[in-house]
User: Fold this.
Amino acid sequence: KLEENIKIAQTEAKKFFNNEEVFIEKFFENPRHIEVQILSDGKDNTVHLGERDCSVQRRYQKIIEESPCPVINDEQRKYLLDVSVNAISKLGYEGAGTLEFIYDKGKFYFLEMNTRLQVEHPVTEEVTGIDLVKRQIEIASTGKLNLQQKDITFFGHAIECRINAEDPSKDFLPSAGTIKTYNQPSGPGTRVDSCVFQGCKIPPYYDSLVAKLICHGRDRASAISRLKRSLDEFVIEGVSTTIDLHKKILRNEDFINSKYDVNWLSKTKFY
Assistant:
């Protein structure tokens, strides 16, 4: 069966690309997605700002991210962070970047590197107190990173929910239209990154993200508690959104106990 499928793949590759080389990769059935935030001046100073767990996904796109990762121990964390810093130092990379890994059965597998700030960077800012956009501009304008690893401290837990203009009950069907009501939450440990407003038109042509809700607490339980309150306060009318889905996820026992992976959302019935 395997040999037969390899030959089929080679035939297709030869036909379309004039190259019959194929690659065999390890298959991970239910892995987690863990990534490391890096800042580097491209010379002699590279630091990490911890890791993020981005395993709650729909169609391979993250919808909830948190830091720190709730399922790795201190030894695994140190190994992952040291490997990431060492790799970026040797590359001579300059600026902000993220190394993404698949985590399965206690082992990390490199996935890719994103040479930019990612959507979920606010959770890192919340647990470190460091403005990543400011640091990125600082490196670009001066060529220096005025930040040492010893200067970075981590406190508490942060979780981000992506609020998308989609209908989760209809297989995440995009929802275009005009926002008739927009009231966002506020309070201690609550942050909203958004540019939409009452009367704003959501077109069908672009990414469906309309807001990011980030909550920080002294631990994971308190961050979840603040997210629940904030989602109850978050009102967007006129288009369908993922607010209700996030409410359901945060009350799910698997999520509360960190027993989820990149395929969990598609296998769990919320509607």
